[in-house]
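Please predict the structure of the following assembly.
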Amino acid sequence: KQEVTQIPAALSVPEGENLVLNCSFTDSAIYNLQWFRQDPGKGLTSLLLIQSSQREQTSGRLNASLDKSSGRSTLYIAASQPGDSATYLCAVLNSGNTPLVFGKGTRLSVIA
Amino acid sequence: GAVVSQHPSWVICKSGTSVKIECRSLDFQATTMFWYRQFPKQSLMLMATSNEGSKATYEQGVEKDKFLINHASLTLSTLTVTSAHPEDSSFYICSASPLNEKLFFGSGTQLSVL
């Protein structure tokens, strides 16, 4: 059974700092991996999707990497801003039409 | 891009009443939709897989008679929380995807049962 772990559970950084969020998964036979952002009481916003054949994806100040063999992914946020404050969730998909398995998330606070 | 609409965004109800949550795929057809539940400071947990034209598949520990799922068309799935109790208070969210594309999520429904 796939299990997804995110470290740290919470992170507080000053504005402008670069930061890394970590995600690990137990079953490396994944179809893809996604990073989401969740604001309090809101739905999910998909940030980056990495297919199993890819090693990284970039969007603006965000860069996500995937090391399938070691069961790890990182989300790198450059030059953090207060508006980046949210919970970041990592989720993996094991096959085409199965549900995502989520980590518990990392709650990020960027202090102005 | 693909859009999944979920309604209502929040609902407050009395204990013992039933609440229906709708999930619609607005610009694509979805033979399968997923329903998740999230308690405060917890991860999203899959409740059930909704299959168009057939019975939903429930995860272990989820009562199918309490959480009724209907997927009557390729663009609509509904989750009905029957005889809701305070412990059912949670954030419910649905997801769907166009074939072979990434999953898209509804905006979620915050249910508070008094």
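The interface with chain A takes residues 6, 10, 32, 34, 36, 41-46, 49, 91, 93, 95, 97, 100, 102-108, 110 of chain B (CB under 8 Å). The CA atoms of residues 95 and 105 of chain B lie 4 Å apart.
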